[in-house]
Amino acid sequence: MSLLEGKVAIVTGSGRGLGLAYAHELARQGAAVVVNDVDREIAEAAASAIAEAGGRAVAVTAPVGPTETARLLVQTAVTEFGRLDILVTNAGVLRDTVLWKMSDDDFDTVIGVHLRGTFTCVREAVVHMREQGEGGRIICIGSPTGQRGNFGQTNYAAAKAGIVGMVRTWALELGRANITANAVVPVAATAMTATVPYFAAAVEADEKGEAMPAFFRHDLGFGTSDDVAGLIAYLASDAAADVTGQAIGVGGDRVQLWSHPEAVVTAYREGGWSYEALEADFPAEFGGQLQSVGEKFPPLPEDLQRPAPNA
Known about the structure:
Oligomer: single chain
Radius of gyration: 21 Å
CATH class of the domain at 8-188 and 224-258: Alpha Beta
Helix content: 40-55%
Low-confidence stretches: none
Number of strands: 8
Shape: globular
Number of helices: 10
CATH architecture of the domain at 8-188 and 224-258: 3-Layer(aba) Sandwich
CATH topology of the domain at 8-188 and 224-258: Rossmann fold
Order of helices and strands: EHEHEHEHEHHEHHHEEH
Strand order of the largest sheet: 3-2-1-4-5-6-7-8
CATH superfamily of the domain at 8-188 and 224-258: NAD(P)-binding Rossmann-like Domain
């Protein structure tokens, strides 16, 4: 019997890229899958490819964010396959620009799809899972940007950090219903990373169907969409029944368990901390423990360096 035989999953934003890899892996493990994309041809092609590979899938064309889309996705799962067990919230968009150039629409669009879309879809799925009474799996997609920040991504960082915060809350709220909630933080060759010169050699290898250099797979934990899909299937399975409220990074040859935010240094002062006390003591108490921001990558080995696109 397959790992997820008899289970039904929804994967938002699964017409291509990482979402498509998740949908294929869940179907390969036996789950029936509701595929979602804003492009009808892309969504239907994804569902057809899953069916041709021996799986079961149906396509829903709708933008993630509105409650109406969330209801449509859950209704489709129940109507077509009789139940809902797994939700993977993967849909997303990018509107990258520095803070002082970011428009209201840039901000609202990204927050609407990522953060609101995750909220509305999870809320609708949980209502059904609780009524169904057999537990469930909520898997939300985060990002290193949400964990560490990234230049030019105020909106995306806010959304992805918010998703992880919601997951921790849902793990508390859903435990009694045997519904787990986890965040996956993928690092993989995508349309976004394809534009970053640092990853050019890895993306180039992936596009040729060749193995990525070990530097990327091992040292950076950077790989293909398929490298991420195994963790999605694991978290969707009964084997992960005790895993909830976690942020788990995955990419290439690496899996990481991210820590929850904790106080790094604690200092006490009788009577409280006035400005004068902070001015006098903050550097000694906290200066050496100030936290870094952004991701720091090691220098590329010479054989993996590529000229800049406009060089």
